[in-house]
Specification:
6 strands; 2 domains; six-stranded parallel beta sheet; Arc Repressor Mutant, subunit A; globular; 51% helix
Length: 217
């Protein structure tokens, strides 16, 4: 069962989402929040598996609410459901720790798929904005001073930083393995160590960490 907290300031939309989700045998809506402050409080009290988060909210916006929820309870997944597809909104949401970003024109069936996928540990971004997001995330300039990658890296080794930068630039584990001339299982082993060292639970959170630390820009 996937326990979901709905965060949406429009009552009619929120009611429609609840009705949609509760038709599914494996989804349970455990709460509803109409603003960012309420979302943070309810996420901390209810500890849902997933928060379905709007961005334009009263009091505290969805980006800041996402950031605070992920900072306090990193195991809670956040899937943004927004009407806004501008690059800045998407980029800031991912930086805040969102595990996925889909648009409100998504079909009901695809929204359910997105919820299940994010709960399973995958990152979901609307296909129309994925390419733009990846284009914006570029590798650190090679003109940086030697050793710069290891600054403020929470004990990561140079190879671990290299892998972190790789996944932040959109490479899969298989692609990274090919570039580094190691096995895919070695890359996955490094990723588990990286997650533990930097205190994250999945790839999207690791990407957000890399952005905050300046490993990618």
């Amino acid at each position: 069962m996937i326990n979901v907290l709905l965060v949406e300031d429009h009552h009619l939309v929120r009611s429609g989402l609840r009705a949609l989700l509760e038709r599914e045998d494996d989804v349970c809506v455990v709460g509803e929040a109409a603003d960012g402050e309420e979302a943070i409080r309810m996420a901390c009290d209810l500890r849902p598996d997933l928060v379905l988060m709007d961005l334009k909210l009263p009091k505290i916006d969805g980006i800041e609410a996402t950031r605070q929820i992920k900072d306090r309870h990193g195991e809670i997944q956040v899937l943004v459901l927004s009407a806004y597809e501008d690059d800045e909104s998407v980029f800031q949401a991912i930086q805040a720790g969102a595990n996925g970003y889909v648009l409100k024109d998504i079909t009901p069936a695809n929204l359910i798929r997105a919820i299940r996928s994010v709960r399973a540990g995958m990152s979901m971004v609307h296909p129309g904005i994925t390419r733009r997001l990846l284009d914006r995330i570029s590798l650190i300039s090679r003109t940086r001073a030697p050793g710069a990658l290891t600054l403020h890296s929470d004990g990561l080794t140079p190879r671990e930083v290299e892998i972190l930068v790789g996944i932040a630039s959109g490479l899969s584990s298989r692609e990274l393995a090919a570039r580094l001339f190691v096995s895919e299982s070695t890359v996955k082993s490094h990723l588990r160590t990286i997650y533990r060292k930097i205190g994250v639970h999945d790839r999207s959170q690791a990407v957000a960490y890399a952005l905050r630390k300046g490993f990618v820009r």
